[in-house]
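In this supplementary section we document a worked example of the pipeline. Step one takes a protein sequence of length 205 as its only input; no multiple sequence alignment statistics are reported here. Step two produces a three-dimensional model, which step three serialises into structure tokens for compact storage. The input and output of this example are shown verbatim.
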Amino acid sequence: MTAPEPATVPSGWRSWVAGARPRTLPAAVVPVLVGTACVAGEGDVSARRAIAAGIVALALQAGNPVRTTRMAELLWPDGPPARWEATVQSHVSRLRRALEPDRPPRATSTRLTTEGDAYVLHLAEDELDARRFERLAGEGRAALAAGHHSAALECFGRALQEWRGPVIAELAHPPIFEAEVNRLGELRVLTLEERAEAALASGQH
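The serialised model returned by step three reads:
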């Protein structure tokens, strides 16, 4: 099996965060392990970071509701502006168009749904780079335990390719992010150690 090219930040994500016309978002719809790349693009950096924080919150809580008041706290740490509810709805509408470009006007979104006063982002496993990292690392761990050292080494290498910087670097880490950021960081260290173990066992030094 040929190792994949190192992952890049989807152009659709850059366009959405930068406030440009939304494009279709490919696999890794929300890149989390990207360092500063998640705030690349034109426009005000602080505004892009605020929007990115809100979307990352939805992604890290994928499948679970994120209340609009929580979104407001992330978007405006110093307090929301007047009519902030309409601004949050506008951001969500743009993300929905990027997620589902072929959805007919006024049709209900199935990817980013509304539940009461909260939003739920529905992602497949490989649409989030952090989850893809976890899957590949888990496959490597299973191969290592089974004594398949070369396969384990490949899986660990592919998992670590997903990391292009600290988790959601340069975004504020409010409590909603802290536990997940720490967990992913610890898992990366473990994966590095296991890759070294697999390399040693397979005769690579």
